[in-house]
Write a structure and sequence with these properties.
The chain has 123 residues and is mostly helical. It has four helices and no strands. This is Cytochrome c3 family protein. GO terms for molecular function: electron transfer activity; heme binding; metal ion binding. Keywords: Electron transport, Heme, Iron, Metal-binding, Transport. InterPro entries: Cyt_c_III_dom, Multihaem_cyt_sf.
Length: 123
């Protein structure tokens, strides 16, 4: 009888943990995207599909992100502005993730945060 109770207790603990993990993941993905302002004017010469690839083929791709990063790192002034924006908009969230023992950087994939509620990636 004791083994049965222990088995039921372990099963209940696993089920509750899985449910909590699922609820947390669902809650995280329901949050709005980061409050980033994107100026389209300086990017007018770039084909929209370079970044908005999801409208063309419905599959996430890192090529658009690599394109953005390569351009943005070429300008020291722009790189400094992006760093300042990170400290203002992003750092608090990264620190919260670190304090709750989640991966918090360095950022290797923009899609890690830029997702809609269905999990679809956006650049």
């Amino acid at each position: 009888m004791r083994r049965i109770l222990i088995g039921l207790g372990v099963t209940a603990a696993v089920a509750l943990s899985a449910g909590a993990w699922f609820a947390h993941e669902h809650w995280q993905r329901s949050l709005p995207l980061l409050p980033l302002a994107f100026p389209h004017e300086p990017h007018a010469s770039v084909n929209c599909i370079t970044c908005h690839h999801d409208y063309q083929d419905q599959s996430p791709s890192v090529s658009g992100n690599r394109t953005c990063i390569l351009c943005h790192k070429q300008s020291p002034a722009l790189a400094a502005r992006i760093e300042a924006d990170f400290h203002q908009l992003c750092q608090s969230c990264h620190l919260q993730r670190l304090q709750s023992f989640h991966a918090s950087g360095p950022v290797r994939s923009c899609q890690a945060c830029h997702r809609d509620t269905a999990g679809k990636s956006y650049p």
